[in-house]
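can u pls check wat happens w/ ribavirin triphosphate
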Amino acid sequence: MAVERTLSIIKPDAVAKNVIGQIYTRFEDAGLRIVASRMLRLSDAVAGGFYAEHSERGFFPDLIAFMTSGPVVIQVLEGENAIAKNRELMGATNPKDADEGTIRADFAESIDANAVHGSDSPASAEREIAYFFATSDVCSRA
Ligand code: RTP
Ligand code: MG
């Protein structure tokens, strides 16, 4: 199986809950490596560009308001099957539907404040990593 990279965001609710380290441990325990990392506050423009695929959806204004409500921690995760593995660790979008033991089941409050983001395909991973990191910022081991 190929080594992949994926873009992960610890959203404002999880940063506010002080569980950055607990979420990083889940990535590491699953065999994913953090190969780039930064903490920042998203502007409306940056959050809107990131979630551009959802710009026509009714939930878009709430999504942008939430993503800009506090600092986020953004990382590139690297490992075998990293994109699907991270989505498994995250659990379903709505924490009410998320499997026991997933990040969203354990740390998320609602479909809006759902703790983490993860790229959903190789194409989105490539776009999303480039959106937040220069190639030289990614300390890949692959
Ligand atoms: P994400 O992109 O944040 O990793 O989440 P996802 O793939 O699981 O879900 P996606 O469909 O990409 O939606 C992006 C974010 O928008 C919010 N959302 N709200 N009210 C709603 O019906 C609704 N649907 C989506 C969620 O916060 C979701 O994470
Ligand atoms: Mg998504």
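The chain has one domain: 3-137.
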